[in-house]
Amino acid sequence: MKAANSDVSSSLQQTAEKCAITKDVLRRIGDKWSVLIIMALSEGSLRFSELARQIPDISQRMLTLTLRALERDGLVVRTVTPIVPARVDYALSALGQSLQEPVVALGRWAFTHQDEVKMAREAFDALRPDTETAIET
Question: 60 near 52, Cβ under 8 Å?
């Protein structure tokens, strides 16, 4: 009986660890800046300044932090060309390319349905005018 309980406990612990990892990965790839960067890099490699121009609302610091995180997660490859001044290019890795299709589809969906989402929010907020229940976007 003790061995069965140990197996169940071990199985639950493994499931909890997998859920934590999955949650962490989804947090990274679901982040708005990560989605926009992956969409931008889906066209091919870009320099930092080119990425910044394609994502105008992102600060340099946030672009740097997000690129580092995507590189750490194996989704983006950073290539430094030793010229003066140094040239740094960012591209999707093979793993990042495997994520490209669903992320681009998500971005297209958001673009296509943005007016419907806006109307739904306005209708929701009109029914709940008090500031405590109104949700900021």
Answer: yes
Look up tokens 């061995």; give the residue.
3
β-pair type (76-81, 87-92): antiparallel
> Which residues, in sequence order, are CB contacts of 86 under 8 Å at separation 6+?
80
Q: Can you tell me the distance from the alpha carbon of 41 to that of 54, in angstroms, rounded to the nearest whole number?
A: 10
For the whole model, what pTM was predicted?
0.72
CA 16 distance to own-chain centroid: 22
DSSP state of 137: -
For residue 78, what is the DSSP state? Answer: E
d(C-alpha 52, C-alpha 57), whole Å: 8
Alpha carbon 19 to chain centroid distance? 18
Separation CA 127–CA 136 (nearest Å): 15
Cα 97 from Cα 100, distance rounded (Å): 5
Q: Tens digit of pLDDT for each residue in 91-123? A: 999 999 999 889 888 888 988 999 999 999 999
- Token couple for 36: 């926009």
Residue 62 belongs to what H/E stretch? helix 60-72
